Amino acid sequence: MKIQEVTIHKISMALHTPYAVAYKTYTTFDPVIVEVRGADGRIGWGESNISPGASKETPESGYQFSLDAAEKIAGMDSEDAKKMLLEQLLESKMAISAIVPAIEMMEDHPILHFNEETRLPLLTPFNSRLGDDIENEVEQHLKDGYKTLKIKVGKPSDTVEIDLEYMAAIQKANKGRAELRLDANRGYTREQGCEFASNLDPDSIMHFEQPCAADAWDDNAAVAKVSTVPLMLDESISTLNEVERAGTIDGVGMCKVKLKRSGSLTLLKQGIERCKELGMQAILGDGTGMEIGNWMEAAVAKDCIDNAGEYNGFLKLNDEIFKEGLRFEHGEMIIPAGYYPEVDEEKLESLALEKPVRFTVPQTALKGAAE
Fold first, then answer.
1. Given 35, 215, 281, 302, which residue has the most CB atoms within 10 angstroms?
2. Which tens digits make up the pLDDT trace of 288-314?
3. Is the CATH code 3.20.20.120 the one for domain 118-335?
4. Whole-angstrom Cα distance, residue 49 to residue 29?
5. Where do the structural domains in the chain lie, given as residue ranges?
6. Does pTM surpass 0.90?
7. 124 exposed, middle or buried (CB, 10 Å; 0-12, 13-18, 19+)?
């Protein structure tokens, strides 16, 4: 299929509640949205919300890469465009992981079809820090239907001792009812990570996620060796090679996979399957993703994930860009049979930070346009 037009949108979406991770507190998500139109009229969408400090990519570099790539692929055959982009994956993983899935959607990738109603459990972030607040929040999440809570540790303002006391307070309030996932977002040194992980009470804890820097493989392995719970690598994992490497480390029982680092829907599914082959569990989802990415991750999850999804960023937003928004009830994302989203382009325009940049090839210039 020929690509006739590519449009790059840069938007900002406000969060209804600030979202704190170890290295940043979000009040908005400011993604690049990619729109790809085929010569047959089909439209595909992709998104990339690049978190400053999470990798070598920046929002500015990702936006510029998207503009440059869009200009190149307009007029190309879709298969050739995907091949060219994926050969450059290490140059700008998050930007490419918006563009290629948009092409896959334009091509009507079969993984995106929901042939029957699908219910997918989601986890929820945990925010309270004080005694009564902690107990009240646990009870509210359970009442809302959540069975998995995600807790952030490793913030620069806290010590290991404070984090351990914090976890003990949550476990006391939880009473074993919900599964707990801990995430340090690369906030610990090797020594801090080892101290925290070796002193954890494992009660109800599924895993401890990414204690040290993404490229600090030896440090993360040292923490995994002494941890009382399985370690999960997140920012360290992008390619199948990194999944393979994680599989060789004692104590690493899980890999976090996200569409925004995988390059494509096809490669994301392959990464999940490889995790399983290596005896690890895959945890899927991007808490800083939005409707397009979260829907796509849910589409992959329906076939190959059996744990709570982390593709919950859409729940943090004040606005929707889908004309028919994603449904959520009692701790679950609910996708009706036959659901296929349509983007509200007027809403998209109202959220713009920059004027959309469009690259179009005239229909008459597209040889073999009906392929």
1. 35
2. 999 999 999 999 999 999 999 999 999
3. yes
4. 7
5. 3-110+344-365, 118-335
6. yes
7. buried
